[in-house]
Every structure is written in structure tokens, then in C-alpha cells.
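Technical annex B. To support the medicinal chemistry partners, we prepared a structural model of the target in complex with heme C, based solely on the information shown next.
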Amino acid sequence: MRSRMLALGAGLLLATAGCVPKPKQAYSTDQIKQLESLEELMRVQAEAADPLFARIGQPAYTDAEYARLEQLGQKLAATSEAMASRFSQNRPPSFSTYAKRLGEQAGELLGAAQAKDAAKASTTLTGMRETCKTCHKEHR
Ligand code: HEC
């Protein structure tokens, strides 16, 4: 009975997870900086960023959304630092250029969220999504 319920739970999770697998666990920023797997790092980024990319273009954000935007800025500051410092070896130089660009944008997002500047938050999210896409086109 118990295992049947577990199986059902796992099935439901898979059905609702979308196309990108979730990270194996929640990571602190310190743990993010030590991740061994670039794939896992990307899953962390997608889980954090995708729901907020979906809010691009909103004329205003709630305080709860600004708090999530701040958290996203902090998280992507950590992931981009890890990409630049730990995953750029043996890759063409533009890889670390994109990683650093994402890091700058993460800082801008943090500032926009703290200032509760909706327009700036939205354009920064758009720029970030572009950085994800551009790096994927070249390096994935
Ligand atoms: C500096 C280059 C770079 C940037 C910037 C970048 N990615 Fe990636 N991404 C990659 C590479 C390379 C892979 C393939 C990694 C692998 O499979 O080992 C990848 C793979 C992925 C995957 C697939 C993971 C899987 O389950 O196989 C997702 C999802 C992803 N990235 C999301 C993002 C998001 C979201 C952003 C922006 C917030 C982003 N990436 C920014 C280089 C980048």
C-alpha cells in the first residue's frame, strides 16, 4: 500500500514537472558554487528562472514577486560565477563571456528588485533569457 502510494506520488511529480528535469535537491549558494555537474547547475537555473521569465512584461510586480526576483538574482550570481570559474576550461572564450554577462545581469536584477523597479526588472529578465539562449546556440 505504502509503495503504491509512493509510486503514484512519483508519477504525479513526473506528470507536472514539464520538460526540464528538476534539480536533485535544493542547494544553498555555497553548494551551487561547488556543483560538479554543469547539467545539474543548468537545472538549478531553469527551475529558478523559468517561472520568472514567464512574468516578463508585467507592468507591476507584487512584493512576493520582488522577493523572488531578488532570490533569482542571488542564485544566478552564484551559478554564473560557477560557470565562469569552474566550467569554462577547455571551452572557447565566449563561454566565460556569456557566463560573466549573466552574472552582471543577475546583479542588475537584484538591484531592480530591491528598488521595486518593474520596467528595469522586466528588461533585465529579457536580457538574461537572451544570454541563456545565445550561449546555448553556441555551446550546448
Ligand atoms: C555560458 C553558457 C551558458 C549559459 C549562460 C546558460 N547555459 Fe544552459 N547550458 C549550457 C550548456 C553547455 C549546456 C549543456 C550542458 C550539459 O548537458 O552538460 C546547457 C544546458 C542547459 C539545460 C539542459 C539541462 C539538462 O537537463 O540537460 C537547461 C535547462 C539550461 N541549460 C538552462 C539555462 C538557463 C535557464 C540559462 C539562463 C538563466 C542558461 N541555461 C544559461 C550553457 C549555458
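Notes passed to the chemistry partners:
Residues 112 and 121 are 5 Å apart (CA to CA).
Residues 11-17 have pLDDT under 50 and may be disordered.
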